[in-house]
């Protein structure tokens, strides 16, 4: 139950162990952290809170902090304790106690019970504060102890006073020593937390082991240290690197200035070579003049002007083409005329052909009679000649006429094509005339007057030999214009060739222009760079004066922070190593004792399910491994195979084994029994209070279960009952002070029977005796079972009924008598006791009194006092027999 600060103090003691060779600054850091522990513990790793706080602290005071080990508490070693048993505790005002309340703690076993909220926890926290100097719950909740421990009605608290009996039986004051007394407390919350260890990742199991031993706050404290504090420290000469880089730049600037002349000569050479790549006899200046500029245009500008002028387009009209078009139109016109003349000569035949076609067209509707006279084609009265056959014969005779008509259609189409082709050429010719402003000439007026789709032989007016009008033009005139068009086309073709040569020359000069610009830009950049370098060289010291000061300060900061980093890194390694070896330090050497206690707690388990080996972890990464008796040599992870109830038993066994290993004179069970399920409570009660495991320890138990307190008293061996006392807590009645009953009657049934007999209350004595017999009979049956004699033949009153006590007693006695091969020192004593109880061998009133003493009867005679005494003595004899399992 020690606080994280006290655990940290133990870490510092560990840090100063001989042979550790811890650097002085690491020890200083540990002492500095201890001196500022409360503030440090309030920080966490989130957003580097802890390292930020530590950085300021270490920079300010690390060098002035002592590296000597602080004075450590004296820890008990090898059972050398300053006292053997607590004596008196007075508490109040303290938590739930408003006024001072004394408690006599001189008995070896002290049982506190009462309802929740009656003051049991306040009592345990008073013991905790008196022994350890802190209360863990206040630490966990981060509540100021002055606030947490104060009685709210008094508004304050007084430190409890605790005395003890030393080894010379003298009363002494108990001094606070968390190192010595830290393992004296067994709490319900710790066992609950330990039972949840199986659900945690492997990396967090060491934290719950620390929780079991009350060191979880320290584990959390260690876990909140950041991995590194480098971000808060000045460790690298970043400013010096900047200045060094600038000095390198200064050297580069000097090299630039020194190489100015050579660089210019190189540029001049490049310029000369560029000019010679254009022509061998031109200079760089001549090349630039040839290219020209906006202020002094050169050949490039001249070429651009030439190329910007729109060149004449080729029209594509020639004398030959126009003449051929005219001739083609004339020929197609004459062909059409010839065909039309031939057709006109056979016009009568054309009429017959049309008639024949009309007759044949009527055959589908008028096929069985003449379409003209309606005379039937067949029958008694019929036409002389079939008109349809006559029409077909006539058409066959006129077949050449049809062909002539088809050729006319073809000829007319060819004539139209030739006419349009000629009209198109004249349209082009008209465009040329218009472009040359010759619209008012005879040719111009003629061409403009032509229809868009002229009909017939519209071109015949061009014939020179037959002019139709004074201003009519001849074909020759049109051909002359076509010659002019051809001449212009020839000139345009020559101009296009010249344009291509100009384009190639322009493109070449443009390429040189870009190269010249690049050379000029390179020279200008060099000149600018040299000028800038000269300027930077001149102003370097002034421009970097502040940076030079920062470099000097940075050097001091690095000298200051480098040891801080080294100290923190080593400190973090050491404190984590300490935390990692905590399981080994806490549980080393506990395997055998914890396993024995665990098996006793689980006495009712099958023998194969009990433990043959227990291996507790020695590092945070180790597992709790067990070997079952039923599978010797096979190690398994305990947290994977044990139930939650068994894990709780294991946690309790580890805590009690730790207390035994250090020879603790005291174990305080703060409601710890309620953390254990009912199936295991009997085994735990027997292991702690009935067996000899803790005879040399004072046991203080708080519990709200009156039944468990009663069971302890019933099963406590006779020799220990005088060293057991019971104290009852009850709620206050309005004064906010718990009501304490110190003289609680002994709850043991035999003790109650003896007390009642001493008060001549024979009925009460017999009632208690009957309860005592029930308890002792169940205990005897369990003892027989531990010796493989637990199988009894019993008669039951019905389904679901419990066996009668008389039947159980008879069956036990019968089993003992029949077990001829069972030789045990307690056997004869048990037989004698049960025979006396059951009235064997001769009838007596013992069983009758046991029955009648439990039932109310009005106006009956008094019981025989001697028989009552016999009952009690017999039960005392039975109680004196060691009936623990396996004994």
Automatic annotation (TrEMBL):
Keywords: Coiled coil. The keyword Signal does not apply. Residues 106-732 form the AAA+ ATPase domain. Residues 530-557 form a coiled coil. It comes from the Bacteria. GO terms for biological process: DNA synthesis involved in DNA repair; double-strand break repair. InterPro entries: AAA+_ATPase (IPR003593), P-loop_NTPase (IPR027417), RecF/RecN/SMC_N (IPR003395). Pfam families: SMC_N. This is DNA replication and repair protein RecF.
């Amino acid at each position: 139950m020690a606080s994280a600060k006290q655990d940290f103090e133990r870490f510092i003691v560990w840090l100063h162990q001989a042979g550790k060779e811890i650097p002085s600054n690491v020890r200083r850091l540990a002492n500095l952290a201890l001196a500022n522990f409360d503030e440090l513990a309030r920080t966490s790793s989130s957003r580097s809170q802890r390292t930020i706080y530590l950085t300021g602290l270490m920079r300010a005071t690390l060098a002035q902090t002592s590296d000597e080990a602080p004075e450590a508490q004296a820890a008990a070693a090898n059972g050398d304790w300053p006292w053997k048993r607590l004596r008196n505790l007075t508490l109040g005002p303290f938590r739930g106690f408003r006024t001072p309340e004394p408690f006599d703690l001189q008995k070896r076993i002290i049982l506190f019970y009462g309802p929740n909220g009656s003051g049991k926890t306040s009592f345990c926290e008073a013991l905790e504060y008196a022994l350890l100097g802190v209360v863990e719950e206040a630490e966990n909740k981060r509540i100021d102890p002055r606030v947490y421990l104060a009685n709210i009605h008094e508004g304050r608290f007084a430190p409890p006073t605790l005395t003890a009996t030393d080894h010379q039986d003298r009363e002494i004051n108990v001094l606070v020593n968390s190192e010595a007394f830290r393992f004296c407390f067994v709490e319900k919350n710790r066992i609950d937390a330990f039972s949840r260890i199986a659900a945690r990742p492997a990396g967090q199991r060491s934290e719950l082991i620390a929780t079991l031993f009350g060191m979880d706050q320290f584990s959390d404290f260690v876990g909140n240290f950041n991995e590194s504090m480098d971000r808060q420290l000045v460790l690298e000469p970043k400013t010096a690197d900047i200045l060094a880089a600038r000095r390198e730049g200064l050297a580069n600037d000097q090299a630039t200035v020194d190489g100015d002349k050579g660089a210019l000569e190189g540029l001049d050479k490049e310029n000369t070579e560029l000019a010679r790549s254009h022509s061998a006899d031109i200079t760089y200046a001549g090349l630039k003049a040839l290219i020209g500029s906006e202020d002094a245009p050169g050949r490039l500008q001249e070429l651009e002007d030439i190329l910007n002028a729109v060149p004449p387009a080729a029209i594509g009209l020639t004398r030959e083409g126009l003449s051929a078009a005219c001739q083609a139109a004339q020929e197609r016109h004459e062909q059409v005329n010839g065909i039309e003349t031939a057709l006109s000569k056979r016009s009568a035949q054309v009429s017959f052909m049309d008639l024949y076609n009309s007759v044949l067209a009527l055959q589908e509707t008028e096929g069985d009679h003449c379409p003209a006279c309606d005379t039937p084609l067949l029958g008694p009265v019929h036409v002389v000649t079939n008109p349809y056959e006559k029409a077909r014969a006539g058409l066959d005779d006129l077949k050449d006429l049809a062909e002539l008509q088809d050729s006319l259609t073809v000829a007319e189409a060819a004539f139209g094509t030739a006419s349009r082709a000629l009209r198109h050429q004249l349209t082009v010719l008209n465009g040329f005339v218009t472009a040359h402003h010759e619209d008012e000439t005879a040719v111009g007026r003629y061409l403009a007057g032509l229809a868009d789709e002229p009909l017939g032989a519209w071109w015949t007016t061009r014939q020179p030999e037959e002019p139709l009008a004074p201003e009519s033009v001849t074909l020759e005139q049109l051909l002359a214009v076509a010659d002019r068009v051809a001449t212009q086309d020839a000139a345009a073709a020559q101009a296009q060739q010249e344009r291509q040569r100009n384009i190639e020359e322009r493109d070449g000069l443009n390429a040189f222009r870009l190269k010249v610009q690049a050379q000029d830009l390179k020279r200008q950049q060099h000149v600018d760079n040299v000028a800038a370098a000269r300027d930077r060289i001149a102003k370097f010291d002034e421009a970097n004066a502040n940076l030079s000061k920062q470099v000097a300060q940075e050097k001091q900061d690095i000298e200051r922070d480098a040891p801080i980093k080294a100290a923190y890194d080593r400190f973090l390694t050491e404190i984590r190593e300490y935390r990692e070896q905590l399981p080994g330090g806490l549980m080393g050497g506990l395997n055998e004792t914890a396993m024995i206690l665990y098996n006793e707690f689980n006495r009712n388990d099958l023998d194969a399910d009990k433990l043959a080996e227990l291996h507790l972890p020695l590092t945070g990464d180790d597992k709790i491994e067990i070997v079952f008796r039923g599978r010797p040599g096979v190690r398994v992870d305990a947290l994977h195979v044990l139930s939650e109830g068994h894990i709780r038993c294991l946690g309790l066994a580890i805590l009690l084994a730790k207390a035994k290993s250090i020879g603790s004179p005291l174990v305080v069970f703060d409601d710890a029994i309620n953390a254990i399920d009912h199936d295991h409570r009997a085994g735990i009660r027997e292991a702690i209070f009935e067996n000899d495991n803790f005879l040399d320890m004072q046991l203080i138990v708080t519990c709200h279960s009156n039944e468990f307190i009663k069971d302890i008293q019933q099963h406590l061996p006779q020799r220990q009952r005088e060293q057991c006392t019971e104290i009852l807590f009850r709620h206050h009645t309005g004064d906010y002070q718990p009501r304490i009953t110190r003289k609680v009657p002994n709850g043991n049934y035999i003790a109650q029977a003896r007390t009642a007999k001493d008060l001549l209350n024979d009925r009460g004595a017999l009632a208690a005796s009957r309860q005592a017999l029930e308890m002792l009979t169940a205990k005897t049956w369990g003892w027989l079972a531990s010796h493989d004699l637990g199988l009894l033949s019993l008669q039951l009153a019905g389904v679901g009924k419990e066996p009668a006590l008389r039947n159980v007693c008879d069956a036990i006695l019968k089993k003992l008598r029949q077990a001829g091969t069972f030789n045990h020192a307690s056997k004869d004593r048990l037989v004698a006791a049960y025979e006396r109880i059951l009235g064997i061998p001769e009838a007596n009133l013992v069983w009758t009194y046991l029955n009648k003493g439990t039932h109310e009867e009005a106006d009956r005679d008094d019981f025989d006092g001697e028989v009552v005494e016999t009952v009690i003595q017999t039960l005392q004899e039975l109680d004196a027999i060691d009936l623990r399992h396996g004994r």
